[in-house]
């Protein structure tokens, strides 16, 4: 949220480029540049650095609340989340330290309509999927709309490239696979409630040259279209002439209490 003196303006779009992988244990520095403040819209550029090196740059646009014609796509008719298996149950049933860790700590409840691809590829090789998601914990009543939108942006990166994996007959455990988000664009159309069930309608129209495109329309439980997302990612797998490094796989470290802590392998040179 920004305030230009005439009142708060909520983020309505973000466009981010991921240039290098970050290190979870190292501090980050955020630098925000005021680009423009107009009568209705404001833009800011954010650069994130780690160890003095840029790892992300993002341009965000903010708009004051205004009246306008209401038109949108209709939400598809799919099974409701109460009819589907939670990813939490799946994680807790897998005898692997990473799965058990996620079963305890993951912040969102995710429920796939077509079945998940955590351990094996989908039943059909098709670049489409639907899933429901919401925050596991109750959010305070005074949680700002900016935080709700930020939570959706944070969460969506967990599932955005799944349609591309499905289209290639892959799963999250495909051997030798390297995967990374390259750039991310997101638009907010209406207020978001991260504590309410949200339906992701996703597809992947193309993959080529180690890059895959994925899109999502996000509806709330009442069928309102609240956000549209587009993301391009790097997905590399072993071929006859090259081998995926697997640098974006998950390894398991041991915490101070002896428990497992999943951590990403440093991927700064993988892309």
From TrEMBL:
Pfam families, per the entry: 4HBT_3, 4HBT_3C
InterPro entries on file: ACOT8-like_C, Acyl-CoA_hotdog, Acyl_CoA_thio, HotDog_dom_sf, TesB_ACOT8-like_N
Keywords, alphabetical: Hydrolase
Taxonomic superkingdom: Bacteria
Record GO biological process: acyl-CoA metabolic process; fatty acid catabolic process
Region (Disordered): 237-271
Domain Acyl-CoA thioesterase-like N-terminal HotDog: 8-63
Domain Acyl-CoA thioesterase-like C-terminal: 101-235
The keyword Hydrolase appears for this protein: yes
Molecular functions per Gene Ontology: fatty acyl-CoA hydrolase activity
Alphabetical list of SUPFAM superfamilies matching this protein: Thioesterase/thiol ester dehydrase-isomerase (SSF54637)
Family designation: Belongs to the C/M/P thioester hydrolase family.
Protein name, entry field: Acyl-CoA thioesterase 2
Source organism of this protein record: Actinomyces succiniciruminis
Source taxonomy: Bacteria, Bacillati, Actinomycetota, Actinomycetes, Actinomycetales
């Amino acid at each position: 949220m920004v305030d230009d003196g005439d009142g708060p303006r909520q983020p309505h779009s973000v466009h981010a480029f991921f240039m290098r992988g970050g290190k979870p244990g190292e501090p980050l520095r955020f630098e925000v540049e005021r680009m423009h403040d107009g009568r209705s819209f404001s833009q800011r550029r954010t650069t994130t650095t780690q160890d003095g090196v840029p790892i992300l740059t993002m341009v965000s646009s903010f708009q004051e609340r205004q009246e306008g014609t209401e038109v949108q796509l209709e939400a598809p008719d799919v099974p409701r989340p109460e009819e589907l298996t939670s990813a939490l149950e799946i994680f807790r049933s897998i005898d692997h330290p990473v799965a058990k860790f996620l079963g305890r700590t993951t912040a969102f409840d995710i429920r796939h309509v077509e079945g998940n691809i955590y351990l094996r590829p989908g039943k059909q090789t098709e670049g489409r999927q639907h899933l429901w998601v919401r925050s596991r914990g109750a959010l305070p009543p005074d949680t700002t709309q900016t935080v709700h939108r930020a939570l959706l942006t944070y969460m969506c990166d967990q599932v955005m490239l799944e349609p591309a994996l499905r289209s290639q007959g892959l799963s999250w455990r495909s051997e030798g696979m390297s995967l990374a988000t390259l750039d991310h664009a997101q638009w907010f159309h209406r207020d978001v409630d991260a504590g309410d069930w949200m339906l992701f309608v996703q597809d992947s129209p193309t993959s080529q040259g180690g890059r895959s495109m994925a899109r999502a329309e996000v509806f709330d439980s009442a069928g309102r279209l609240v956000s549209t997302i587009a993301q391009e990612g790097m997905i590399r797998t072993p071929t006859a002439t090259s081998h995926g490094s697997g640098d974006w796989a998950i390894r398991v470290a041991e915490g101070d209490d002896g428990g497992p802590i999943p951590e990403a392998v440093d991927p700064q040179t993988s892309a």
